[in-house]
Design a protein that fits this description.
The structure holds two protein chains of two kinds. Chain A is mainly alpha-helical. Chain A is built from six helices and no strands. In chain A, 56% of the residues are buried. The chains are: A mainly alpha, B mainly alpha.
């Protein structure tokens, strides 16, 4: 486990948690990325402003990080185009059908003890682990 | 205006957390999901730290009763586990396991400039758009129909 990085992982996790806490206490909402993004595709536009502001914050984060630290951490993403498209479609469709992703269900939902979020998180962790097992160890990818 | 500023701050904090924890690196995410291989448990610490602070925030928000900048808390109250929720979660997990990207990190790495991230986000938005054509009672309706056809 030479790649194990518990300290930055914990610090990053605390920041993510702080973001969801801030969003709930100030705005009264669940900071679920798929929900915030998906809401932009719905006809109701009254909440367009805060949704775009949250996403702008996400996009400016790497610029701020790079300005302060002078570099960005590695992003290793060498999947072929077809796989990226398939994965993107499944993530987009699945998170809307299942009403949440890693943030909404995994962080916020478990944080408030929601049985739906706990079940959803167990299911997507299971299918993700299974998918990695099949592609890496059965198909030898 | 305050609502916009607080949303921006929350997004910024979220993005910084994803970058510092290296959740933005799909290889790192796949190494966490690869429990039968050279497993990297780091992401469990991301989840642990995030859930802990999220739970504290929830406890405080509930005790306060009303949010600071909005008229009321918009928290889901449903507790039932229906096929739609579990099917969606299963589909999401397969997509996540294929390349190691979920919505938050996928958006956050856009400024890193990898073309792969743009392809993924475009497909993600298409997947969300396709979802709008799904009937409100799917897949429950399909389960009911097949149960009827099976004569039960």
């Amino acid at each position: 486990m030479d790649h194990f990085t518990p300290v930055p992982a914990l610090i990053g996790g605390l920041l993510i948690g702080a973001s969801t806490a801030l969003f709930l206490v100030l705005n009264g909402r669940i900071a679920g990325i798929s929900g915030i993004l998906g809401g932009l595709l719905q006809p109701a536009r009254s909440d367009l402003g805060w949704r775009l502001a949250f996403l702008a914050g996400l996009l400016i984060a790497p610029l701020l990080y790079a300005a302060v630290s002078g570099s960005l951490p590695p992003v290793e993403l060498d999947a072929p185009t077809g796989l990226l498209v398939l994965a993107g479609l499944l993530v987009g469709f699945g998170t809307r059908l299942g009403a949440g992703c890693t943030s909404g269900h995994g962080v916020c939902g478990i944080g408030r003890g929601s049985p739906r979020s706990i079940a959803a998180t167990l299911v997507f962790m299971m299918t993700a682990i299974l998918t990695v097992f099949v592609t890496r160890h059965l198909m030898g990818g | 205006m305050a609502l916009i500023a607080s949303s921006f701050a929350a997004g910024l904090l979220f993005g910084l957390g994803l970058i510092i924890s290296q959740m933005v690196n799909p290889a790192k995410v796949l190494a966490f999901l690869d429990i039968f291989g050279n497993w990297d448990p780091s992401l469990a610490f991301v989840m642990g730290g995030a859930v802990l602070v999220s739970a504290l925030g929830y406890a405080y928000a509930k005790r306060r009763g009303v949010p600071v900048l909005a008229p009321k808390l918009e928290i889901p109250t449903r507790r039932d586990l229906e096929p739609r929720l579990l099917t969606g979660a299963a589909i999401f997990g397969i997509g996540w396991g294929l390349v190691g990207l979920c919505p938050g990190p996928a958006l956050t790495i856009l400024p890193f400039g990898h073309w792969q991230a743009f392809v993924f986000v475009a497909a993600l938005l298409a997947g969300m758009a396709i979802f709008r054509f799904v009937p409100a009672d799917w897949p429950q309706s399909t389960f009911r129909r097949s149960a009827k056809e099976a004569g039960t």
